[in-house]
Amino acid sequence: xxxxxxxxxxxxxxxxxxxxxxxxxxxxxxxxxxxxxxxxxxxxxxxxxxxxxxxxxxxxxxxxxxxxxxxxxxxxxxxxxxxxxxxxxxxxxxxxxxxxxxxxxxxxxxxxxxxxxxxxxxxxxxxxxxxxxxxxxxxxxxxxxxxxxxxx
Length: 152
Hints:
transmembrane helix; Putative LRR receptor-like serine/threonine-protein kinase; globular; 3% helix; two-stranded parallel sheet; membrane; mainly beta; disordered C terminus
């Protein structure tokens, strides 16, 4: 068994999703749900997508992801067909930012193939002397981490 994720719907009342990239070692894939409490086990959706073998390099065979974000005032989610791997990209934007965009052709020609729609926008601080701060809270089992990136 390869434990992947524990989902606690009492803590995530608005739902959740878990993404994994797994390189199978055979022509079959087994998914196992383990009951750990007095709850009903469920999978509301299971989506499988083919990827190129060199898209994400891993020695363990599996990669778990938290999220994919793109900078935009839009509240739209980007996924297939704009993302060939059907990753789910959510927009991220602060009210103290100014969005900058391009109508030029955007190149996404690398093995990760990010969606062009996610690469067309960027942000600068509305106040030119302020840093561009990006914060993301990540819930990892019972630990909450906050990552901050600063541009001076």
